[in-house]
Amino acid sequence: MAFEKKYVPLIVGVAIAAGVFIGGKLNFKDTSDRLFTSNSKKDKLNRLIDYIDYEYVDEVNTDSIVDVTVNGILDNLDPHSTYIPKSELERVTNNMKGDFIGLGVNFYTYMDTITVIRTIEGGPSEKAGIKAGDRILMADGDSIFGDKFTNNEIVNKLRGEKGSKVNLKIFRKGEDKLLDFKIRRDVVPLKSVDAAYMLTEDLGYIKINRFAESTYKEFKDALDKLQDEGATQLALDLRDNPGGFLEIAERIVDEFLEDNKLILFTKNKSGRIERSYATKRGDFEEGEVYIMINESSASASEIVAGALQDNDKGTIVGRRSYGKGLVQREMSLGDGSAVRLTVSRYYTPTGRSIQRPYDNGKNNDYYNDYYKRLRSGEFENAESIQVADSLRFETPKGKVVYGGGGIIPDIFVPLNTSHQNETLNYLKRREYISNFVFVELDKDRSVYEGVDAQDFIENFQVGDEIVVKFQDYVNLKERTNISFLAYYDQMKRMIKSELADQLFGSNVAEQIMNENDDMIEEVILLSEEAKQED
């Protein structure tokens, strides 16, 4: 089970806040120029900024004032209308586009030198022959090693226009001289499908980490592959998925629903309703599907779960989802920055909105809803989930569902608190595990030459001495005295999963972390029961 980032306070407070505002793209009848006509409110802000520019006693960066002003305005709206400054827009856009222009390497600075952790599958560096463990010393004749370079500066050296070339000098262990590589920059994919493999002989598994522009194609390729391997049932893992593009969620839902089934509808400020229906192209309309969600599944993840639940298709497994039923559209502000503004609400096929209340806008209560749920016992007992009878709906087959704050699963799986150790999740976030594994692996990569991925999954064991070594590594880094004695099994699995990720990729890493996963085991049980009923 590739590590499911279950350090939920951070996820809810940061990752979700950064991710769930991407609800989709809708079309306006008016262009931005027509929407932003001259008016007294606009003139008032312009005059104030001009006064500060020309009359204020001290020099002031009015760009920063504008940023503060924009954020202040948005803070009085809903929690998911968000300002993206110029410095962040390219990164955010690339993340949701699903690719970027570059060389295609994951790296970190090891002893002041840029060291390749892995090459990205299908990227230019992999094609050119760059290997994990390579040290990049120079780019186009300029040195890029030493403590004077930041990661951002290095990234800027390595990235460039599509089709442009960069000359690299590489140090590789075992070679008696530096290696020269000329690499042509190209599109580098950012995977949104972490894993796709068979859980049983007929139950496939797909994990999606976000809904980017490339996600549907990745999903469809994975689904086709699993069907070729015999999958007649599917476990779709949307846990900790903060969402993304609405239309991508619709296309994925379309794979499971029959022609003309309602997927969702949206309603904007003027009351205009737009409905989205399934088409004839679905390839998994007959198969049984299980959607796994948790408290950090949001936005597009909830669209998928809600559409299938309301159409009595498949089974929703897990815990109540995040509760975001708003749709955003990205609008340029003309200076390289943008705003993602909420333009409509979406409703599931039965007519329910699953948006959580936000009467006080972007306050701490909204983002700290996780703690409220935790205190109420909701993560441990389904009966603790609070519902409102006024928001009660029924599916075509008479199943009762509720609106007002997330998707409530059909089958509840409590939070496994043994997997919620704060210390282990902290170490994962700080990339201590990744860096430690790289250093150990880099000592002698020949040990793993010819090792088969399946053999690694089934037979490779992480010894106690490695856990002790990692413990010493962390204590040296943190200048503390952490002990993993009570968490040896978890620590071994996390180390083995990270090693698999660096050797074989995320698909193998996920399989290792998914061993003994409570929710997956519940899905397998439901799958077996469904086969017996057939």
Question: What is the topology?
Answer:
Elements: H1 8-19, H2 32-35, H3 40-55, H4 62-75, E1 82-84, H5 86-97, E2 99-102, E3 105-110, E4 113-119, H6 124-128, E5 135-139, E6 142-143, H7 151-158, E7 165-171, E8 179-184, E9 186-189, E10 193-198, E11 203-208, H8 215-228, E12 233-237, H9 246-254, E13 262-268, E14 273-277, E15 288-293, H10 300-310, E16 315-318, E17 326-332, E18 338-347, H11 364-367, H12 369-376, E19 392-394, E20 400-402, E21 411-412, H13 422-429, H14 432-443, H15 453-459, H16 464-478, H17 488-504, H18 506-513, H19 518-533
Parallel strand pairs: 11-12, 12-15, 15-16, 16-21
Antiparallel strand pairs: 1-18, 2-9, 3-4, 4-5, 5-6, 5-7, 7-8, 10-11, 13-14, 13-18, 17-18, 19-20
Helix pairs in contact: 8-9, 9-10, 14-17, 17-18
Summarize the structure.
The protein has 534 residues and is of the alpha+beta class.
Describe this structure in words.
It is globular and about 75 Å long. The chain contains 19 helices and 21 strands. The strands form five sheets. Strands 3, 4, 5, 6, 7 and 8 form a six-stranded antiparallel β-sheet that branches. A six-stranded mixed β-sheet has the order 10-11-12-15-16-21, with helices on both faces. Strands 1, 13, 14, 17 and 18 form a five-stranded antiparallel β-sheet that branches. By secondary structure, the chain is of the alpha+beta class.
